[in-house]
Structure formats: structure tokens, C-alpha cells
Design a protein that fits this description.
By secondary structure, the protein is an alpha+beta fold. It has one domain (3-17, 50-181). It has helices at 3-17, 36-42, 62-71, 78-85, 165-175; strands spanning 53-57, 91-98, 101-108, 114-124, 127-132, 135-144, 147-155, 179-181. Strands 1-2-3-4-5-6-7-8 form an eight-stranded antiparallel barrel. Strand 3 (101-108) and strand 4 form a beta hairpin. Helix 1 packs across helix 4 (78-85) and helix 3 (62-71) packs across helix 5 (165-175). The protein is globular and about 40 Å long. The model is unreliable at 1-47 (pLDDT under 50).
Length: 184
């Protein structure tokens, strides 16, 4: 299969089954804001999991994203993802976990944060499953002090034409940089 066909197949997979959504953070409630709406999302009830709260990635560059893919054995898929998603030179992610919702925002080159990945979640020990239209992702998580580490375990998306698409997407979003706790 020629490389341009692979890129088209990858794009179809991402458009039809990936967990991205379009939209922006609520007005006045950017991922780093302390507006009432943002604080309500970030707040964790007593006895909540250590996973719940607000987390911020470091700066993710194409090189750090490719390194995460290489570590996961997915390096051959990186360029197609970068081309399709127009990955910027400097990307930063903010993750809000709480109130039954998992929401990841993406800021490219210091621009506005846009909601990139979201769904209802459930925590079972050191795993979290995020449910989206069309499938679910399961990640292993651990918190050490104020640092969150996530690792892809599995997904239930059916992409016979590109079976690694969801794993590539999740690896770049969640495993390209350590996550530091933001406001709780």
C-alpha cells in the first residue's frame, strides 16, 4: 500500500472513530481559569480518587511525541498523525477528571485551548476507562506526589483498516509528557 493511501486510511480512522470532539473551553473557563464553572469541574468530592483533579502536561513537541510513539513501538505511525492533526511545534494539554467527565484540552503554540478528548469515565483500581461514542479506552494510571503517569492498555474501537489508530492518538495525547497537578 502506498504511503498516501496509508495516510488517507489513518485520516478516515481518526475522523470516524477517534475520541476527539470539536469545541472550545467554555467562555471565561479556559483550562487554567478559576471561574466557577472551571472550579466545579476541577473539584473532587471527599474520598475521590487521586486521579481526579486538573493535570497539565509539559510542552509536547513533535520530537517528544515521536519519542513516546517509539517507546510504545508505534514510531512508524507518527508522521501520518502529525500530518493529519497538524501537530504544532509546541503543544500543551490540560486534563480535567471529575464529576464523571474526562476532558482533555489541547493548545497549539500557545493558542486557545480546544477540547480534544472527552467522555464519561470509571476508575477500577489503577485503571481508568473512558467511554466515547463508538468505543472506550482503558489506561493505567499512577500518581506520585503531584505527577500523573498514564499508560495505554486497550481500546474497543473497531478500525480494521488501521488497527493502531486509537493507540497512536492516546499515546500522543497522554504519554508524550509527564502530567503535573494543577488546581484541585
Amino acid at each position: 500500500m502506498t504511503s498516501w493511501i496509508r495516510i488517507i486510511a489513518f485520516a478516515v480512522v481518526l475522523l470516524t472513530g477517534c475520541t476527539s470532539t470539536t469545541g472550545t473551553a467554555p467562555t471565561g473557563a479556559s483550562p487554567g481559569s478559576s471561574s466557577p464553572a472551571a472550579s466545579a469541574t476541577a473539584a473532587s468530592p471527599p474520598g475521590a480518587s487521586d486521579l481526579e483533579g486538573v493535570w497539565r502536561s509539559g510542552v509536547v513537541t513533535p520530537d517528544t511525541a515521536m519519542a513516546a510513539l517509539q517507546t510504545a513501538g508505534l514510531g512508524e505511525h507518527g508522521q501520518a498523525f502529525f500530518n493529519f492533526w497538524n501537530i504544532a511545534d509546541e503543544n500543551q494539554f490540560t486534563l480535567r477528571v471529575g464529576g464523571g467527565r474526562w476532558i482533555c484540552f489541547w493548545s497549539k503554540d500557545g493558542g486557545q485551548s480546544i477540547e480534544e478528548d472527552s467522555g464519561a469515565y470509571s476508575i477500577d483500581g489503577d485503571t481508568v476507562t473512558i467511554r466515547h461514542d463508538g468505543g472506550a479506552d482503558t489506561l493505567r494510571w499512577s500518581v506520585d506526589g503531584n505527577t500523573l503517569t498514564l499508560a495505554y492498555l486497550s481500546d474497543t474501537f473497531d478500525h480494521p483498516e488501521y488497527p493502531k489508530g486509537e493507540e497512536v492518538y492516546q499515546t500522543i495525547l497522554y504519554m508524550s509528557s509527564p502530567w503535573e497537578r494543577g488546581e484541585r
